[in-house]
Write a structure and sequence with these properties.
The protein is an alpha/beta fold. The protein has a single domain, classed as Rossmann fold. Helix 1 packs across helix 7 and helix 4 runs parallel beside helix 5. The radius of gyration is 19 Å and the shape is globular. The termini are far apart. The model has no long low-confidence stretch (mean pLDDT 98). Bound molecules: nicotinamide-adenine-dinucleotide and 2'deoxy-thymidine-5'-diphospho-alpha-D-glucose (DAU). The site of nicotinamide-adenine-dinucleotide (NAD) has 30 residues, from helix 1, helix 4 and strand 5. The site of nicotinamide-adenine-dinucleotide has 30 residues, from helix 1, helix 4 and strand 5.
């Protein structure tokens, strides 16, 4: 099996590359990544070059993506602009990569008759009230809020249209908030860990009541592998591991695990249009494909993630100052 992993030098893509490298030693992996500010070759360093190839390229580049797709059996498409705050400040790259880039991949898989697994997000469904008993299910109507989530929703709709109109072989997964190693310090959990490690206070948007449904990136990877091997073409699967926590709880737990006063954080300006709550019903993946998450204890998974950032300062330090300068401009 030869797979092309777009965005494989980013956070979840690189976790997936490590997971497949370990779990499927007979598969060949080609990573296709533009290496934007969010991509880092260090994330996939040290892997056997006979088993993992790297192409630096832009998924919007028709010729480059066509040549890469021609060479493989399956494309697993992670590449995206992924940060909501950036999309509120500068939406254009989100339209280019998430929509036009996905279009180029669809055209290439259509031309070469290859399978595509498209990686998407629970944010396409919009948000839930705190007391809503319903969770997101695959048939829920789309209702995205931000430039990021609307471009991801647009990319999903293109994938569905190419499947129906051109019979392209696709599967889609929409996952909840991931945490784990190699996550960029712009994101909530790594930002708070590294703020504390640099001697500053964590920064909570608004009241901190917003709820996210946390899943370890390795569990996301095992969900994708289950879909690749056992999923039904044309179907959408939701990936989540019952990890609902509000942001205040998460910040307080990070402070506690780092031996600090759990209440020693700042409230900063809220994100415009901030989604209140996400929650995934993953029963289709569990019952139809037999998937089970491994990291069911959030405290343990978070502790391991904190330990990784403590041990890998050389990995995150170079990104930290520029990230905080961007946040200063946003007043957050
Ligand atoms: P990330 O920002 O850490 O990584 C994105 C990667 O894509 C980077 O390596 C970047 O260099 C690459 N990339 C960006 N634009 C590109 C382009 N035009 N051409 C080629 N490569 C390009 O993102 P992430 O958090 O790892 O998210 C990966 C995917 O998973 C995204 O599609 C995202 O929507 C989805 N997702 C993320 C989460 C989450 O919690 N982070 C949850 C559900 C779904
Ligand atoms: O739900 C899946 C999505 O999860 C993915 O599609 C996105 O790619 C990914 O970035 C993530 O989106 P969020 O906007 O939920 O993640 P973020 O890490 O930016 O923020 C998580 C929550 O924490 C959110 O409610 C905003 C809040 N927050 C964030 C930062 C950076 C803070 O309170 N303080 C912060 O400093």
């Amino acid at each position: 099996m030869r797979i092309l992993v777009t965005g494989g030098a980013g956070f979840i893509g690189s976790n997936f590359v490590h997971y497949i490298y370990r779990e499927r030693p007979d598969w060949h992996i080609t990573v296709f990544d533009k290496l934007t500010y969010a991509g880092n070759r260090e994330n996939i360093a040290g892997l056997d070059e006979n088993r993992v190839a790297f192409i630096q390229g832009d998924i919007c580049d028709e010729a480059a993506i066509d040549a890469a797709v021609a060479d493989v059996d399956v494309v697993v498409h992670f590449a995206a602009e992924s940060h909501n705050d950036n999309s509120l400040h500068s939406p254009r790259p989100f339209v280019d990569t998430n929509i036009v880039g996905t279009y180029q991949i669809l055209e290439a898989v259509r031309k070469h008759g290859k399978r595509l697994h498209h990686i998407s997000t629970d944010e396409v469904y919009g948000d839930l009230e705190l007391d809503d008993p319903a969770k997101f299910t695959p048939d829920r109507p789309y209702n995205p809020s931000s430039p990021y989530s609307s471009t991801k929703a647009g990319s999903d709709l293109l994938v569905r249209a190419w499947a129906r109109s051109f019979k392209v072989a696709v599967t889609i997964s929409n996952c909840s908030n991931n945490y784990g190693p190699y996550q960029h310090v712009e994101k909530f959990i790594p930002r708070q860990i590294t703020e504390i490690l640099e001697g500053r206070k964590p920064k909570l948007y608004g009241s901190g009541e917003n709820v996210r449904d946390w899943i370890h990136a390795e569990d996301h990877s095992s969900g994708i592998l289950a879909i690749l091997e056992k999923g039904t073409l044309g179907e959408t699967y939701l990936v989540g591991s019952n990890g609902e926590k509000n942001n205040k709880e998460v910040v307080e737990l990070i402070l506690e695990l780092l031996g600090k006063d759990p209440h020693d954080y700042d409230h900063v300006n809220d994100r415009p249009g901030h989604d209140l709550r996400y929650a995934i019903d993953a029963s289709k993946l569990i019952t139809e494909l037999g998937w089970q998450p491994k990291y069911t204890d959030f405290r343990e998974g978070l502790k391991a993630t904190i330990d990784w950032y403590v041990a890998n300062e050389a990995w995150w330090k170079p990104q930290k100052q520029a990230t905080e300068e961007k946040y200063k401009e946003l007043g957050r």
